[in-house]
Amino acid sequence: MITMEKIDYVISVTGAEYGKVREALLSCDGDVDRAIRMIMGEDDAEKEQNEQSYDFKNAKRTKMEDMSDSISNFGSEIIDAVRDFWEKGNATKLVIMDEHDEVILNVSMNLGAIWTVIAPVAALMGVGIGILSRWEFYIYLDDGRVVNVKDYITDKHRMR
């Protein structure tokens, strides 16, 4: 915050004009000492250092960020696929199995849909963990068919 007291103090120390002092204080976020150094020409080294600092906004995305986004997108697609089956009304239960075909979660679709609505972030995190752990997501339909959700999503993408 820039106050008249700060401006007056910098003017009295440096003897600079009001406009120059105001600009210096604005560029230094109201820091009187930095503004004085800037006006006196001693802040050049600090300015160069700031220009050479790493620009995070324009940096290229890392592989980890790309992977995180793809997992998040795939997790959202799994949740959307489960919702599609639930909205059709022909799904009875959701079963999640690990890579050794051991059941991790076996839940009624009604209960699973309620929890997805109540806690969507937790559901997305759980799906993300499942994807990383190579779990399989199965939906049991009321006519006895079993749908692998990952295969359903893959087929859905092929049809686009």
TrEMBL record:
SUPFAM superfamilies: UBA-like. It comes from Aedoeadaptatus ivorii. The chain crosses the membrane at residues 113-132. Residues 67-134 form the DUF4342 domain. Gene3D superfamilies: DNA helicase RuvA subunit, C-terminal domain (1.10.8.10). This is DUF4342 domain-containing protein. Keywords: Membrane, Transmembrane, Transmembrane helix.
